[in-house]
Protein backbone atom coordinates (compact mmCIF):
# COMPACT_ATOMS: atom_id res chain seq x y z
CA UNK A 1 0.00 0.00 0.00
CA UNK A 2 1.31 3.44 -0.95
CA UNK A 3 1.46 5.84 2.00
CA UNK A 4 2.68 9.41 2.05
CA UNK A 5 1.83 13.10 1.77
CA UNK A 6 -1.62 13.73 0.30
CA UNK A 7 -1.78 17.51 0.85
CA UNK A 8 0.34 20.39 2.18
CA UNK A 9 -0.54 23.73 3.80
CA UNK A 10 1.61 26.29 5.57
CA UNK A 11 1.63 29.54 7.53
CA UNK A 12 4.69 31.78 7.40
CA UNK A 13 5.25 34.94 9.45
CA UNK A 14 4.06 37.87 7.35
CA UNK A 15 6.78 40.35 8.28
CA UNK A 16 10.51 40.16 7.70
CA UNK A 17 13.80 42.00 8.07
CA UNK A 18 15.70 42.19 4.78
CA UNK A 19 19.09 40.54 5.18
CA UNK A 20 20.78 43.51 3.51
CA UNK A 21 19.27 45.82 6.15
CA UNK A 22 20.50 43.47 8.85
CA UNK A 23 23.99 43.28 7.36
CA UNK A 24 24.37 47.03 6.94
CA UNK A 25 23.30 47.67 10.53
CA UNK A 26 25.57 44.97 11.94
CA UNK A 27 28.49 46.03 9.71
CA UNK A 28 28.60 42.68 7.93
CA UNK A 29 29.33 42.24 4.23
CA UNK A 30 25.85 41.69 2.79
CA UNK A 31 27.21 39.69 -0.14
CA UNK A 32 28.62 37.11 2.28
CA UNK A 33 25.13 36.49 3.63
CA UNK A 34 23.25 36.75 0.34
CA UNK A 35 25.65 35.11 -2.10
CA UNK A 36 27.61 33.06 0.42
CA UNK A 37 24.76 31.63 2.52
CA UNK A 38 21.75 32.28 0.28
CA UNK A 39 19.96 34.52 2.77
CA UNK A 40 17.66 37.32 1.63
CA UNK A 41 14.86 37.64 4.17
CA UNK A 42 14.47 36.80 7.85
CA UNK A 43 10.80 36.28 8.78
CA UNK A 44 9.69 37.37 12.24
CA UNK A 45 6.70 36.50 14.44
CA UNK A 46 4.36 39.40 15.09
CA UNK A 47 3.17 40.24 18.60
CA UNK A 48 -0.01 38.16 18.20
CA UNK A 49 1.81 35.05 16.95
CA UNK A 50 3.42 32.04 18.61
CA UNK A 51 3.94 28.40 17.65
CA UNK A 52 0.31 27.53 18.41
CA UNK A 53 -0.88 30.30 16.09
CA UNK A 54 1.32 29.14 13.22
CA UNK A 55 0.33 25.51 13.71
CA UNK A 56 -3.39 26.30 13.96
CA UNK A 57 -3.32 28.50 10.85
CA UNK A 58 -1.54 25.83 8.81
CA UNK A 59 -3.99 23.14 9.94
CA UNK A 60 -7.02 25.39 9.37
CA UNK A 61 -5.91 25.89 5.76
CA UNK A 62 -5.15 22.22 5.28
CA UNK A 63 -8.67 21.29 6.39
CA UNK A 64 -10.40 24.05 4.42
CA UNK A 65 -8.42 23.66 1.20
CA UNK A 66 -8.96 19.90 1.11
CA UNK A 67 -12.54 19.84 2.46
CA UNK A 68 -11.52 17.46 5.23
CA UNK A 69 -14.04 16.03 7.66
CA UNK A 70 -12.60 16.35 11.19
CA UNK A 71 -13.96 12.89 11.99
CA UNK A 72 -11.60 11.44 9.36
CA UNK A 73 -8.47 12.79 11.07
CA UNK A 74 -7.27 10.11 13.48
CA UNK A 75 -4.25 11.96 14.84
CA UNK A 76 -2.53 15.33 14.88
CA UNK A 77 1.17 14.89 15.64
CA UNK A 78 3.29 18.00 16.07
CA UNK A 79 7.05 18.36 15.66
CA UNK A 80 8.50 21.39 17.43
CA UNK A 81 11.40 22.68 19.45
CA UNK A 82 9.56 25.90 20.34
CA UNK A 83 7.01 24.62 22.81
CA UNK A 84 5.27 27.15 25.03
CA UNK A 85 4.54 24.80 27.94
CA UNK A 86 6.48 22.02 29.69
CA UNK A 87 3.36 19.86 30.04
CA UNK A 88 0.55 20.85 27.69
CA UNK A 89 1.57 20.06 24.08
CA UNK A 90 1.02 22.36 21.13
CA UNK A 91 -1.17 19.60 19.69
CA UNK A 92 -3.57 19.97 22.63
CA UNK A 93 -3.86 23.72 22.07
CA UNK A 94 -4.43 23.22 18.34
CA UNK A 95 -7.06 20.54 18.95
CA UNK A 96 -8.99 22.98 21.12
CA UNK A 97 -8.81 25.74 18.51
CA UNK A 98 -10.07 23.40 15.78
CA UNK A 99 -13.12 22.67 17.94
CA UNK A 100 -13.84 26.40 18.08
CA UNK A 101 -14.22 26.31 14.28
CA UNK A 102 -15.72 22.87 13.72
CA UNK A 103 -17.85 22.33 16.81
CA UNK A 104 -17.45 20.97 20.31
CA UNK A 105 -16.13 17.38 20.43
CA UNK A 106 -15.37 17.43 16.68
CA UNK A 107 -11.83 16.22 17.47
CA UNK A 108 -12.72 14.27 20.60
CA UNK A 109 -11.42 10.96 19.23
CA UNK A 110 -8.33 12.39 17.54
CA UNK A 111 -4.98 11.50 19.13
CA UNK A 112 -2.40 14.25 19.55
CA UNK A 113 1.14 14.54 20.88
CA UNK A 114 4.28 16.63 20.37
CA UNK A 115 7.63 15.26 19.16
CA UNK A 116 10.80 17.04 20.27
CA UNK A 117 14.23 16.29 18.85
CA UNK A 118 15.52 19.65 17.65
CA UNK A 119 14.95 20.10 13.90
CA UNK A 120 14.10 16.46 13.16
CA UNK A 121 11.06 16.27 15.46
CA UNK A 122 8.49 16.63 12.69
CA UNK A 123 10.24 13.95 10.61
CA UNK A 124 9.89 11.67 13.63
CA UNK A 125 6.18 12.56 13.67
CA UNK A 126 5.96 11.81 9.93
CA UNK A 127 7.73 8.46 10.38
CA UNK A 128 5.28 7.51 13.14
CA UNK A 129 2.19 8.60 11.20
CA UNK A 130 3.26 6.74 8.05
CA UNK A 131 3.57 3.55 10.09
CA UNK A 132 0.15 4.24 11.63
CA UNK A 133 -1.58 4.67 8.28
CA UNK A 134 0.10 1.55 6.87
CA UNK A 135 -1.25 -0.43 9.82
CA UNK A 136 -4.67 1.25 9.61
CA UNK A 137 -5.69 1.56 5.94
CA UNK A 138 -8.29 4.25 5.41
CA UNK A 139 -7.16 6.34 8.38
CA UNK A 140 -5.75 9.83 7.93
CA UNK A 141 -3.15 11.59 10.04
CA UNK A 142 -1.83 15.14 10.16
CA UNK A 143 1.77 16.12 10.83
CA UNK A 144 2.49 19.73 11.80
CA UNK A 145 5.94 21.28 12.01
CA UNK A 146 5.73 24.58 13.89
CA UNK A 147 8.67 26.63 15.14
CA UNK A 148 10.15 30.04 15.79
CA UNK A 149 13.90 30.13 15.23
CA UNK A 150 15.16 32.85 17.57
CA UNK A 151 18.79 33.62 18.37
CA UNK A 152 20.40 36.13 20.72
CA UNK A 153 20.98 39.59 19.32
CA UNK A 154 24.49 39.92 17.85
CA UNK A 155 25.06 36.14 17.99
CA UNK A 156 26.51 34.22 15.05
CA UNK A 157 23.11 32.63 14.34
CA UNK A 158 21.08 35.84 14.40
CA UNK A 159 20.79 36.18 10.61
CA UNK A 160 19.25 32.67 10.24
CA UNK A 161 16.03 33.39 12.16
CA UNK A 162 12.60 32.49 10.76
CA UNK A 163 9.08 31.57 11.83
CA UNK A 164 6.15 29.51 10.59
CA UNK A 165 4.53 26.11 10.25
CA UNK A 166 3.90 23.41 7.66
CA UNK A 167 1.00 20.94 7.89
CA UNK A 168 0.94 17.61 6.01
CA UNK A 169 -1.97 15.27 5.42
CA UNK A 170 -0.78 11.65 5.56
CA UNK A 171 -2.93 9.00 3.88
CA UNK A 172 -2.91 5.91 1.71
CA UNK A 173 -2.76 6.47 -2.06
CA UNK A 174 -1.37 10.01 -1.59
CA UNK A 175 -1.56 12.63 -4.32
CA UNK A 176 1.91 14.19 -3.80
CA UNK A 177 4.53 11.64 -2.68
CA UNK A 178 4.53 8.00 -1.54
CA UNK A 179 7.34 6.95 0.80
CA UNK A 180 9.31 3.73 0.68
CA UNK A 181 9.44 1.57 3.79
CA UNK A 182 13.20 1.96 4.26
CA UNK A 183 14.23 4.45 6.93
CA UNK A 184 17.88 4.69 7.95
CA UNK A 185 18.86 6.30 11.25
CA UNK A 186 22.07 7.58 12.78
CA UNK A 187 21.88 8.89 16.35
CA UNK A 188 24.49 9.88 18.92
CA UNK A 189 24.35 12.19 21.94
CA UNK A 190 25.97 15.58 21.30
CA UNK A 191 25.85 19.14 22.64
CA UNK A 192 26.06 20.92 19.30
CA UNK A 193 22.86 22.93 19.84
CA UNK A 194 20.49 22.83 22.82
CA UNK A 195 18.14 24.94 24.94
CA UNK A 196 18.93 24.28 28.62
CA UNK A 197 17.19 25.74 31.62
CA UNK A 198 19.11 28.73 32.90
CA UNK A 199 19.08 29.76 36.57
CA UNK A 200 19.02 33.03 38.47
CA UNK A 201 19.65 33.42 42.19
CA UNK A 202 16.50 34.77 43.83
CA UNK A 203 18.44 37.58 45.52
CA UNK A 204 19.58 38.79 42.09
CA UNK A 205 16.15 38.93 40.48
CA UNK A 206 15.05 42.16 42.14
CA UNK A 207 18.27 42.91 44.03
CA UNK A 208 16.48 42.21 47.32
CA UNK A 209 18.25 40.60 50.28
CA UNK A 210 15.25 40.49 52.61
CA UNK A 211 13.03 37.55 53.47
CA UNK A 212 9.57 39.01 52.90
CA UNK A 213 6.91 36.28 52.68
CA UNK A 214 6.36 36.75 48.95
CA UNK A 215 10.11 36.64 48.33
CA UNK A 216 10.93 33.85 50.73
CA UNK A 217 8.53 31.49 48.91
CA UNK A 218 10.79 31.46 45.89
CA UNK A 219 13.37 28.72 45.39
CA UNK A 220 16.99 29.68 46.02
CA UNK A 221 17.63 29.45 42.28
CA UNK A 222 14.88 30.18 39.79
CA UNK A 223 14.88 28.23 36.54
CA UNK A 224 14.10 30.31 33.49
CA UNK A 225 13.44 29.41 29.87
CA UNK A 226 14.90 31.21 26.86
CA UNK A 227 13.89 30.61 23.27
CA UNK A 228 17.47 31.28 22.20
CA UNK A 229 19.78 28.24 22.05
CA UNK A 230 23.28 27.49 23.25
CA UNK A 231 25.24 26.33 20.22
CA UNK A 232 28.62 25.80 18.63
CA UNK A 233 28.21 26.49 14.92
CA UNK A 234 31.36 24.77 13.72
CA UNK A 235 30.80 21.70 15.89
CA UNK A 236 27.17 21.58 14.77
CA UNK A 237 28.30 21.51 11.13
CA UNK A 238 30.65 18.63 11.96
CA UNK A 239 27.95 16.62 13.72
CA UNK A 240 25.43 17.39 10.97
CA UNK A 241 27.89 16.02 8.39
CA UNK A 242 28.74 12.91 10.42
CA UNK A 243 25.14 11.89 11.19
CA UNK A 244 24.04 12.61 7.62
CA UNK A 245 26.87 10.56 6.14
CA UNK A 246 26.13 7.63 8.48
CA UNK A 247 22.39 7.69 7.72
CA UNK A 248 23.06 8.03 3.99
CA UNK A 249 25.25 4.94 3.81
CA UNK A 250 22.92 3.01 6.09
CA UNK A 251 20.05 3.80 3.73
CA UNK A 252 22.12 2.82 0.72
CA UNK A 253 22.69 -0.59 2.32
CA UNK A 254 19.01 -1.00 3.31
CA UNK A 255 17.85 -0.15 -0.20
CA UNK A 256 20.44 -2.42 -1.83
CA UNK A 257 21.78 0.36 -4.05
CA UNK A 258 24.92 -0.41 -6.03
CA UNK A 259 26.99 2.52 -7.26
CA UNK A 260 25.97 6.08 -6.44
CA UNK A 261 22.81 6.49 -4.34
CA UNK A 262 22.35 10.17 -5.16
CA UNK A 263 22.31 9.39 -8.87
CA UNK A 264 19.01 7.57 -8.26
CA UNK A 265 17.43 10.70 -6.74
CA UNK A 266 15.84 13.41 -8.89
CA UNK A 267 16.11 15.92 -6.04
CA UNK A 268 17.66 15.85 -2.59
CA UNK A 269 15.78 17.50 0.27
CA UNK A 270 17.84 18.33 3.35
CA UNK A 271 17.40 20.23 6.59
CA UNK A 272 18.35 23.84 5.78
CA UNK A 273 19.13 26.08 8.76
CA UNK A 274 20.23 28.45 6.03
CA UNK A 275 19.62 28.07 2.31
CA UNK A 276 23.07 26.86 1.24
CA UNK A 277 23.72 24.51 4.18
CA UNK A 278 22.89 21.44 2.10
CA UNK A 279 25.26 22.26 -0.75
CA UNK A 280 28.02 23.03 1.74
CA UNK A 281 27.54 19.78 3.64
CA UNK A 282 26.95 17.41 0.69
CA UNK A 283 30.28 17.88 -1.10
CA UNK A 284 31.83 15.08 0.98
CA UNK A 285 29.09 12.61 0.06
CA UNK A 286 29.33 13.74 -3.55
CA UNK A 287 33.01 12.79 -3.54
CA UNK A 288 32.80 9.63 -1.44
CA UNK A 289 29.79 8.09 -3.18
CA UNK A 290 30.83 8.83 -6.76
CA UNK A 291 31.20 5.88 -9.07
CA UNK A 292 34.90 6.72 -9.06
CA UNK A 293 35.45 8.16 -5.55
CA UNK A 294 37.28 11.49 -5.53
CA UNK A 295 38.29 10.92 -1.90
CA UNK A 296 39.71 7.86 -0.20
CA UNK A 297 39.02 8.97 3.36
CA UNK A 298 42.65 8.27 4.25
CA UNK A 299 44.04 11.69 3.39
CA UNK A 300 45.74 13.90 5.95
CA UNK A 301 42.95 15.95 7.67
CA UNK A 302 44.26 19.25 6.30
CA UNK A 303 44.65 17.81 2.80
CA UNK A 304 41.19 16.25 3.09
CA UNK A 305 39.54 19.63 3.80
CA UNK A 306 41.55 21.28 1.01
CA UNK A 307 40.41 18.62 -1.43
CA UNK A 308 36.78 19.01 -0.29
CA UNK A 309 36.94 22.75 -1.00
CA UNK A 310 38.34 22.05 -4.44
CA UNK A 311 35.55 19.56 -5.16
CA UNK A 312 32.88 22.02 -3.98
CA UNK A 313 34.15 24.57 -6.52
CA UNK A 314 34.34 22.10 -9.40
CA UNK A 315 32.06 22.35 -12.44
CA UNK A 316 30.82 18.82 -11.78
CA UNK A 317 29.69 19.68 -8.26
CA UNK A 318 28.13 22.97 -9.31
CA UNK A 319 26.09 21.11 -11.94
CA UNK A 320 25.07 18.57 -9.31
CA UNK A 321 23.93 21.34 -6.93
CA UNK A 322 21.95 23.06 -9.67
CA UNK A 323 20.12 19.87 -10.60
CA UNK A 324 19.54 18.14 -7.28
CA UNK A 325 19.88 20.63 -4.38
CA UNK A 326 19.04 24.11 -5.65
CA UNK A 327 15.26 23.62 -6.17
CA UNK A 328 14.80 23.18 -2.40
CA UNK A 329 16.70 26.37 -1.52
CA UNK A 330 14.64 29.42 -2.68
CA UNK A 331 12.00 29.20 0.05
CA UNK A 332 14.68 29.05 2.74
CA UNK A 333 16.30 32.17 1.26
CA UNK A 334 13.02 34.05 1.62
CA UNK A 335 11.94 32.68 5.03
CA UNK A 336 14.95 31.78 7.17
CA UNK A 337 15.22 28.76 9.42
CA UNK A 338 11.97 26.95 10.25
CA UNK A 339 13.67 24.34 12.44
CA UNK A 340 11.34 21.30 12.16
CA UNK A 341 9.57 22.78 9.16
CA UNK A 342 12.63 23.55 7.04
CA UNK A 343 12.88 20.13 5.37
CA UNK A 344 9.19 20.14 4.42
CA UNK A 345 9.34 23.73 3.19
CA UNK A 346 12.35 22.65 1.13
CA UNK A 347 10.24 19.87 -0.37
CA UNK A 348 7.43 22.31 -1.23
CA UNK A 349 10.01 24.71 -2.67
CA UNK A 350 11.36 21.98 -4.95
CA UNK A 351 7.86 21.12 -6.15
CA UNK A 352 7.12 24.80 -6.84
CA UNK A 353 10.37 25.22 -8.81
CA UNK A 354 9.69 22.08 -10.87
CA UNK A 355 6.16 23.30 -11.60
CA UNK A 356 7.47 26.71 -12.72
CA UNK A 357 9.96 24.97 -14.99
CA UNK A 358 7.20 22.76 -16.42
CA UNK A 359 9.32 19.73 -15.55
CA UNK A 360 7.34 16.51 -15.21
CA UNK A 361 8.66 14.69 -12.14
CA UNK A 362 5.83 12.17 -11.79
CA UNK A 363 7.35 8.81 -10.93
CA UNK A 364 10.70 10.34 -9.99
CA UNK A 365 12.39 9.57 -6.67
CA UNK A 366 13.19 12.29 -4.13
CA UNK A 367 15.76 11.60 -1.41
CA UNK A 368 15.41 13.11 2.08
CA UNK A 369 18.25 13.68 4.55
CA UNK A 370 16.83 15.03 7.81
CA UNK A 371 18.88 16.25 10.76
CA UNK A 372 18.25 17.31 14.34
CA UNK A 373 20.88 18.53 16.77
CA UNK A 374 21.54 16.44 19.79
CA UNK A 375 22.05 14.50 17.40
CA UNK A 376 20.14 12.39 14.85
CA UNK A 377 19.77 12.00 11.08
CA UNK A 378 17.21 10.03 9.08
CA UNK A 379 17.49 9.10 5.42
CA UNK A 380 14.44 8.05 3.40
CA UNK A 381 12.96 8.41 -0.06
CA UNK A 382 9.66 8.69 -1.87
CA UNK A 383 8.14 8.55 -5.34
CA UNK A 384 6.41 11.65 -6.71
CA UNK A 385 2.72 11.04 -7.47
CA UNK A 386 0.55 12.43 -10.32
CA UNK A 387 -1.12 15.11 -8.17
CA UNK A 388 2.12 16.91 -7.24
CA UNK A 389 1.79 19.73 -9.78
CA UNK A 390 -1.77 20.64 -8.83
CA UNK A 391 -0.69 20.75 -5.18
CA UNK A 392 2.35 22.90 -5.97
CA UNK A 393 0.37 25.42 -8.00
CA UNK A 394 -2.42 25.54 -5.43
CA UNK A 395 0.09 26.35 -2.67
CA UNK A 396 1.16 29.63 -4.37
CA UNK A 397 4.37 29.49 -2.35
CA UNK A 398 6.50 32.11 -4.04
CA UNK A 399 3.53 34.40 -4.73
CA UNK A 400 2.71 34.33 -1.01
CA UNK A 401 6.31 34.95 0.07
CA UNK A 402 6.52 37.91 -2.32
CA UNK A 403 3.70 39.59 -0.37
CA UNK A 404 5.69 39.54 2.90
CA UNK A 405 6.10 42.98 4.53
CA UNK A 406 9.53 44.40 5.36
CA UNK A 407 10.22 46.12 8.71
CA UNK A 408 13.11 48.35 9.74
CA UNK A 409 15.88 47.35 12.12
CA UNK A 410 14.47 49.26 15.08
CA UNK A 411 11.14 47.44 14.77
CA UNK A 412 12.96 44.12 14.52
CA UNK A 413 14.89 44.83 17.71
CA UNK A 414 11.75 45.80 19.62
CA UNK A 415 9.98 42.63 18.44
CA UNK A 416 12.96 40.54 19.49
CA UNK A 417 12.98 42.12 22.97
CA UNK A 418 9.16 41.85 23.21
CA UNK A 419 8.86 45.59 23.73
CA UNK A 420 5.87 46.08 21.39
CA UNK A 421 2.25 45.67 22.50
CA UNK A 422 0.61 46.06 19.08
CA UNK A 423 0.65 44.08 15.84
CA UNK A 424 2.83 45.29 12.98
CA UNK A 425 0.56 43.63 10.42
CA UNK A 426 -3.16 43.51 11.24
CA UNK A 427 -4.34 39.87 11.34
CA UNK A 428 -6.95 38.82 8.77
CA UNK A 429 -8.57 35.36 8.52
CA UNK A 430 -6.17 33.85 11.01
CA UNK A 431 -5.68 32.81 14.60
CA UNK A 432 -4.15 35.16 17.15
CA UNK A 433 -2.90 34.90 20.70
CA UNK A 434 -5.62 36.86 22.46
CA UNK A 435 -4.70 36.72 26.14
CA UNK A 436 -2.36 35.18 28.70
CA UNK A 437 -4.02 34.79 32.10
CA UNK A 438 -2.33 36.71 34.92
CA UNK A 439 -5.02 37.06 37.60
CA UNK A 440 -6.71 33.70 38.28
CA UNK A 441 -4.35 31.62 40.47
CA UNK A 442 -5.42 28.24 39.10
CA UNK A 443 -5.09 29.43 35.50
CA UNK A 444 -2.00 31.65 35.68
CA UNK A 445 -0.18 31.45 32.38
CA UNK A 446 -3.08 29.91 30.45
CA UNK A 447 -3.03 31.06 26.84
CA UNK A 448 -6.25 31.91 25.00
CA UNK A 449 -6.66 32.25 21.25
CA UNK A 450 -9.34 33.45 18.86
CA UNK A 451 -9.90 33.50 15.12
CA UNK A 452 -9.97 36.93 13.45
CA UNK A 453 -11.94 37.19 10.22
Please give a structural write-up.
The longest helix is centred in the middle third of the chain and has 23 residues, at 233-255. Helix 1 packs across helix 2. The protein has 2 domains: 3-192 and 232-452, Thiolase/Chalcone synthase (Peroxisomal Thiolase, Chain A, domain 1), CATH 3.40.47; 196-224, no CATH class. With 453 residues, the chain is of the alpha+beta class. The strands form 5 sheets. Strands 1, 4, 5, 6, 7, 8, 9, 14, 15 and 16 form a 10-stranded mixed beta sheet that branches. The protein has a 3-stranded mixed beta sheet with strand order 3-2-17. Strands 10-13 form a two-stranded antiparallel ribbon. The chain has 17 helices and 19 strands. It is globular. The model has no long low-confidence stretch (mean pLDDT 94). It has helices spanning 19-26, 30-37, 51-65, 90-102, 121-135, 202-205, 213-216, 233-255, 277-281, 283-288, 301-312, 315-325, 330-335, 342-356, 388-395, 397-402, 409-416, and strands at 3-12, 15-18, 41-44, 73-79, 111-115, 140-149, 162-172, 177-179, 184-187, 193-194, 198-201, 221-224, 230-231, 267-270, 365-372, 376-384, 405-406, 430-436, 447-452.
Amino acid sequence: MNTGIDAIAYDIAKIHLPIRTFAETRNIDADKLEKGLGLYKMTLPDTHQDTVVFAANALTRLIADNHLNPADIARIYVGTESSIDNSKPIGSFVQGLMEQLHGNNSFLHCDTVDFTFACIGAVDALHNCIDFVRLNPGKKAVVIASDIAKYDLESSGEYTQGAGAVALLISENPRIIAFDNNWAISAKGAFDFFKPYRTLAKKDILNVEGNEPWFGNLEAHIEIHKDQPVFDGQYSNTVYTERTREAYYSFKKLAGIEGSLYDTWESIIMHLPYAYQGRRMFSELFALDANEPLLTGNEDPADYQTRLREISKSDAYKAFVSQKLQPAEPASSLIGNLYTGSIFMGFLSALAVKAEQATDITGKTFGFLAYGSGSKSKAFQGTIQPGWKVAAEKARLFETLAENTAVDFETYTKLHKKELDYSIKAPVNEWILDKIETELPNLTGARYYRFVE
